[in-house]
Amino acid sequence: xxxxxxxxxxxxxxxxxxxxxxxxxxxxxxxxxxxxxxxxxxxxxxxxxxxxxxxxxxxxxxxxxxxxxxxxxxxxxxxxxxxxxxxxxxxxxxxxxxxxxxxxxxxxxxxxxxxxxxxxxxxxxxxxxxxxxxxxxxxxxxxxxxxxxxxxxxxxxxxxxxxxxxxxxxxxxxxxxxxxxxxxxxxxxxxxxxxxxxxxxxxxxxxxxxxxxxxxxxxxxxxxxxxxxxxxxxxxxxxxxxxxxxxxxxxxxxxxxxxxxxxxxxxxxxxxxxxxxxxxxxxxxxxxxxxxxxxxxxxxxx
Length: 302
Hints:
Keywords: ATP-binding, Nucleotide-binding, Nucleotidyltransferase, Transferase. By secondary structure, the chain is of the alpha/beta class. The protein folds into two domains: about 10-195 and about 290-300, Rossmann fold (3-Layer(aba) Sandwich), CATH 3.40.50.620; about 205-285, no CATH class. The protein has helices at about 10-25, 40-50, 70-85, 95, 100-105, 105-125, 190-200, 265-275, 290-300, and strands at about 30-35, 60-65, 85-90, 130, 150, 180-185, 210-220, 220-225, 240-245, 260. It has a six-stranded mixed β-sheet with strand order 3-2-1-4-6-5, sandwiched between helices. It has a four-stranded antiparallel β-sheet with strand order 8-7-9-10, with no helix packed on it. Strand 7 (about 210-220) and strand 8 (about 220-225) form a beta hairpin. Helix 7 packs antiparallel against helix 8 (about 265-275). The longest helix is centred in the middle third of the chain and has 20 residues, at about 105-125.
């Protein structure tokens, strides 16, 4: 089963590698969802270890929205080129034609069409039967309900009351045509585990995680970094330069930064040890309606 390693991080690593190899044995056409964030970076690193010295035997899938930070796009293309792994970029063309954006149409509608519907489209288009995701149980309440293998019906819907038992690392991958499984090999990791593992393994991450002086404005309790000219500045708002970094990354109008002096991994780990709030407090889409994340997951969000 798992390697008899003495450190906690090595045990987590062994569990994740075991899960990835199980998926390759259970499914015909898996894919790894790649959001470009720190969890995706760790998940990709674990995939490389899982199949070394061979190549990662499945593609990466990035559900693009056109609203990611510029540094995220640069990092995504750099990783795809240097890792020599197939990268599939999927954009919901219907949403693109509607010219949807988070400012005019609201975070909920924008996320539903550009992310949830985009993901369902891509899974159907390429006939993926399993999709790795970097979600962790410590991130948010509904994610704590997830199993390692999370069953989705032919409409990509998730029902927390119909999850399959997982005893002694035995996972049930039986599905019918059109159904799929979302797989979460980092479920048992915490935010602190992720940072310590990135430090231990020297994993490359998007520079936005490190503190630097960047242009921001305060809106609805969030510290929004102004990443391009599409920002709709209100009459009472002023863009200021502040020392900030990100605990989590998504579409820039919906992702809040934190004020921080942590410019390296050691400082980030120290900061993470003392923090009392979830990193998801920086995601506006988690608060647009009651039980927002669970509702999105029931509808097909990853």
